[in-house]
Amino acid sequence: MVEFLQKKLGHEKLILLKIFSYSCMNCLRSFAFIRKINDKYRKYGLITVIVHPPEWKFEKKKSNVLCALKKYNIRIPIIIDRNKKVIEKLGIDFWPAQILLKTNFPPLIERWKFRCGKTKAKPMKGKNAKPINGTFVKIAYKHIGEGNYKELENKIIKLLKINPDKVFKKVFRKEPSYSKFPSVYCGKRKNGKIKLLGQKIKLKFNVIYTDKNWIQRQEYIKSVADKASLEIASKGRIINFVAESLLQKKIKVDVKVNNYIKTIMVGKPRLYTLIELKSSKLNKLRLISDPNLAIYSFSFQ
User: Fold this and answer.
1) pLDDT band at residue 183 using 50, 70 and 90 as cut-offs
2) If we measure between CA atoms, which residue out of 19, 27, 17 comes closest to residue 242?
3) Domain residue limits at 142
4) Is the model's pLDDT at 2 over the cut of 70?
5) Is pLDDT at 111 greater than 50 in this prediction?
6) pLDDT (0 to 100) of residue 123
7) Which residues contact 202 (CB under 8 A, 6 or more apart)?
8) What is the percent of the chain with per-residue pLDDT over 90, rounded to a whole number?
9) Do 104 and 192 belong to one domain?
10) 54 with 152, same domain?
11) What's the rounded Cα separation, in Å, for the pair 226 and 91?
């Protein structure tokens, strides 16, 4: 990776940093739009680099990240920011995020991670010029969260000095639309709300209702007995969860929404799609699991 960055990142470059973690549904959805931008503008000189900070401890493992890149067919170079040093320098504490960097000196990004090179660069002018390890980089664009893809594309066109003609087609004629449902977290670190499941109880969104066969840890809830059951109020047409088997084998999970029932097998830590529905109305999701399932969060599309 160092050799690739040294080869690609030279003088007068426009770099698109995509802040992304592989188990984040919003990140994966956002990346689909960034992939289109990269495919369109890399021939004009745009360099796209993923910065991968961990949301969960398992995302610090290089093998897990590389496995996810293969699964999602991601071929863009990546910096595994396991200690979050890169995003701290960028002032980022929430993702997905998109940042455009304008540089006018020899390779920068590898110095963030590998601290190599002592070349002093000529400072760039402007209020957005930021010192990075004794050098300067201009942050030309910054957006936290999903969206603003059309604005990002227009900024790239301007900075790359592309003169669109009648034949030129932009990636986005209008801003893409997407659902905006909050995630539901399970562990103590993210203030997961856990209540005991009862026979006559009205489910509230953002609360996880479990039987006595679950325990709450810092990052996840863990099933500790056969047929451990939980229920949540769900939104959206597609329901996902971030989960893993804490054993060396896959764990069976039965999924029920209304009258629809299916079974999935959970293995490595990642985002799993539980069910796809025809409507996005509020539903009741029920899971029944074997022991040693860890669930980190639920997300909805």
Assistant:
1) very high
2) 27
3) 2-159
4) no
5) no
6) 39
7) none
8) 73
9) no
10) yes
11) 45
Are residue 141 and residue 255 in the same domain, yes or no?
no
In a domain, 151, yes or no: yes
Question: Are 150 and 188 contained in the same domain?
Answer: no
Cα–Cα distances (Å) from 287 to 76, 137, 203, 252, 290, in that order, read 36, 49, 14, 10, 10
Environment class of 237 (CB within 10 Å of its CB; exposed 0-12, middle 13-18, buried 19+): middle
Q: Specify the CATH number for the domain of residue 287.
A: 2.60.120.260
**Residue 174, in any domain of the structure:** no
Under the banding of pLDDT at 50, 70 and 90, the label for residue 138 is confident
Q: Indicate if 19 and 130 belong to the same structural domain.
A: yes
Q: How many structural domains comprise the chain? A: 2
Assign residue 52 the CATH number of its domain: 3.40.30.10
Residue 69's φ and ψ, nearest 5 degrees, are -60, -40
- Concatenating the DSSP letter of every residue in the chain gives -HHHHHHH--SSEEEEEEE--TT-HHHHHHHHHHHHHHHHHGGGTEEEEEEE--SSGGGG-HHHHHHHHHHTT--S-EEE-TT-HHHHHHT--SSSEEEEEEE-SS--HHHHHH----PPPPPPPSTTEEEETTEEEEEEEEEESS--HHHHHHHHHHHTT----SS---S-SS---------EE-STTTT--EEE--SS----TT-EEE-TTEEE-SS-EEE-STTEEEEEEE-SSEEEEEEEESSSS-EEEEEEETTEEEEEEE-SSEEEEEEE-S--S-EEEEEEE-SSEEEEEEEE-
Between CA 129 and CA 101 the distance in angstroms is 10
